[in-house]
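Batch manifest, entry 17 of 40.
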Amino acid sequence: MSAMFGRRAVNPRLGTYFGIFASAFTALTLLVLVFEQLGSEDQLLRAAMLLVPFGMYIVIGLGCRSTEVLEFFASGRRVPAVNSGAVMSVTALGGTGIVALTGLFFIHGFDAWCIGTGVVAGFVVMGVAIAPFLRKFGGFTVASYLGRRFDSRLLRIVAAALLTVAMLLFLAAEMSVAAAVGSRLSGQATPYVMLLMVVTVAGCTVPGGLRSATWTLTAAVIVVVLAIMVPAGLMAVLAGNLPVPQLSHGPTLRALGVLERSQGLPLAAMPPLAMNFAGTEMTAMAQRFASPFGSVGPIAYVLAALTTMAGVAVAPWLLPRIGTTPGIYETRKSAGWATVFAGVLLLTLSAFAVFMRDMVMEQLTMREIASVPAWFATLVSERLAAVGAEGPRLAPQSVLFARDGVLFALPIAAGFPDTVLYMTLAGALAAALAGAVAATTAIAHTVGEDIVAGTSWEPLPDRIRIYLVRIAMIVIPICAAVIAASTKADPFKLALWALALSGSTAFPVVILSIWWKRIDEQGALASMVVGFFVAVLTILLAETTGVGLSSLLAGVFGIPAATLVALGISAWRGAPGKPELELVMDIRIPGGETLYDRDTRRQRQKQRQLR
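Output type: structure tokens
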């Protein structure tokens, strides 16, 4: 028992290790800043901010190599709650969310909070209604849990196949954003950046599975936090003498409202179900920042928040992280920490947008084109902004910005050294890497554990299990890179489609499997299939025929359809048997041995007796 406890205990030196990493990244940034002031070649500075962090991620991944099953698939179940929560928050947003949401806050103001509200609410639902019970079960994937819960190999394989589609969409979105951001940072063509991403993702996952991924992503979270907080803090000091942008951008927002009214920025009112978010094209500021429902209708706002909440709560690339905590108490805490970190990041991105919009309204709009500030010309040359309409003066509606470029436009507009811009780019790249690594790990575990070996309840030998997953961890990012390179789809759309498919496929079944004893195998199987295909059909119809509903709201039809099918079929078939009832009761009891570990131990004992 003492050996087991020692192996599962949280490493007391984690703070020291990641303090060293944070110091190393800070030292790198300061060193690049010094060399910039000394006039060093710009390409060398860019390469340092790109390659050195990626090299450190790979070194951490290699240093965490392991061939033990529990370490490889669950990071030894000894990850502190704060580490797990921080990783989940950045992984949920990913590079796609951090880059796109900053632009959406800038262009649409209040309306973009429908997505941010859904992300935070998703972690609340996860922590209260899902995570503790899946942690008690102890499976490595969502499909493994559903297969064991309903004692159905067919359900396990079907769930794995359907959820893999959603995870591939999310992974393709992260790879696409990483290629765009990495190309902007390095100045190299996107294929070279994509190749670097594939190598880095493999280096962060193959050596130690989820153990390598966990500690690599913890380092990436540090980079993301520093890269976003530093420029936002500098702007907060310039605007209000307080380096806390989440609190100090209020006076700037009030002054911004006065400027918007004086310059005639319109007050729009959209139909209840309208949802007109900016895409990848250049877009003008659509409405006043603090005025709601100028781009998203009131009903669509609520529906978008609810569907995003459902997708985040059961996201198959997030839920496996709850299995890395030492116990159920730490699982609840990790969901709480994820809520806190996600909220702080979203508030910081909103502050980014407020500061940037204030600079545009004060220094740029209503001026003659010949007297615009130099930073705007730089933004135009960098393809981050453009002039949409000719005239003697620049009206607010005639200044266009790239949605995915607002995060990087602020350091340029504020006149910060180039190093601050490179650090922000490195942070966005780290967030994209975090999302890509999490999705790759989850897909590889699902393919190896549930699809390849899902026809048998008896696990394969440990060496073969790890070998299969490692192969998948090499192949999957290559496939995602090919998908990202061959499609021109908006990465933000891909990410929201992934959440819609996850919510429609798994949210009703996972919730009912915990809280409604009567749901059975047939009801769960039909629910997942119906929810998935209804969501897919909604996306296709919205994108091809232009029906009166945005494809981003696909879960509005998929989730209710899946819920009704599960309730109807399960109620019609009658009460479940005694084994199913006992399993549900075991899942609901917070203490005791992890059920997956108990079943695996019994199967190993049976195999030894047969020999």
